[in-house]
């Protein structure tokens, strides 16, 4: 489901002309930076960083979260295992990967993620990037590993213990239905693949945080997704309408302006392509 930001949104004036309204565009890199800021503003995350466990799995959006927390600049293209690039389903070279990251009481720890997971409680938070989100807020993770990858190893523990699973995801990844898409995938069912064999793993109890939740949480506006796409460097962009008081919309626009120009990252070293 989508994270509930209703308590943070200002009450809109009933007449449209009495509202302040803006329209903004975010490319995928800018969206990732915004979503990272939104995730770190969640009260569950703030509490975990203060006195509990906060574990960040590998992923490109995850790298932005770690950057926001540590102030360091990462080679974000190396912060993931699975990746869609060069027009195929790909995997980064394992020896060059960065992450995952464990924060205990707000401090980066050398504790192995699997060990940290075993001590998770209902107050601890795990953050995992995803590859699909639908209008209901259900999310799906593409898994090339035969045992389900990261989500296959962490989800049963998180679900059993009632821990928080936060799923940062840009609206560029919106699909009609995660449930229906899941039944169309499976590593063993494809005759032909572009890259690696994968499955879409559904995660129905994660809290999805998109550009919309991030802007509403951080500024109090009401955000609406009105268009997607672009060309010549704006591929994958999302266009959002922002509504609220002049103060709230100004804050939102200034926030978007502050992350405009977020640089792209290069294609990482990849495992050899597989075309079947």
Notes on the protein architecture:
- With 276 residues, the protein is α+β, with helices and mostly antiparallel strands.
- The chain has a domain at 29-210: Rossmann fold (3-Layer(aba) Sandwich).
- It has 8 helices and 14 strands.
- A hairpin with a 2-residue loop joins strand 5 (101-104) and strand 6.
- The longest helix has 14 residues, at 28-41.
Brief summary:
The chain contains eight helices and 14 strands.
What is the CATH architecture descriptor of the domain at 29-210?
A: 3-Layer(aba) Sandwich
What is the strand tally? 14
Output mean pLDDT. 96
Q: Please identify the structural class as seen in this structure.
A: alpha+beta
The helix content is 25-40%
Strand order of the largest sheet: 6-5-2-7-10-12
Number of helices: 8
- Write down the CATH topology of the domain at 29-210: Rossmann fold
Sheet-strand content, in percent, reads: 15-25%
SSE string, helices as H and strands as E: EHHEHEEEEHEEEHEHEEHEEH
Cα separation of the termini = 36 Å
